[in-house]
Amino acid sequence: MISAAPLPTRATPSRPRRRLALLLLPALLAACASAPSGGPVGDGYYRVRSGDTLGKIAQTYRQSVTSLARWNNLSNPNRIDVGQVLRVAPPAGAGEAASSQTVPPAASDNALPASSIALRWPVQGPVIARFNGTSNKGIDIGGQLGQPVVAAAAGKVVYAGNGLRGYGNLVMLKHSGGFLTAYAHNRVILVKEGQYVAQGQQIAEMGSTDSQRVQLHFELRQEGKPLDPLRYLPSR
Question: pTM for this structure?
Fold first, then answer.
């Protein structure tokens, strides 16, 4: 579950904003427990059903548990949720052949520390403001109005709305290992709370809501603590 820590803030919040964040927190916690959507998934993906284990899914799709855990950023392969969408085919360019061998989940868990998460860039564009941990608890990425914004990692939508002042249309995703990502200032939000999304799946369109220019404000947190996203994103 997501930690009951303060919601993402880009600067020291005013009292009204702090009160608003506290009001939003129960909604976020409720979203974590809400029933996932059951819509179709694309080729190379699988939606977890009751009774599934990662080992069983790996055997069905002739992959290793280690590969599935890595492709889906699962810090604990023993924990998968009903309704969760998993990538079951190698990502483009992974260069990894399918394997019919499976590894017991408990054994592969030690190879994936909870302190790590493999992110992809949520949008293409220049970094126009960097993380400093105080006035900016994420990074700002420039781009074009309507440009696709994608999930930096597979996860569950725990917030999708515009109730937090200063962030405009905001999407927040919960990931394994206690990680949370936030995507702010969107023009349009394309996902709903409780929905599971795959890494690279479009979740919004870039915009300028509650911002003076078109940009994506992107934050990464673990157990509520802000982290520098550039330390977890691929270099470019």
Answer: 0.59
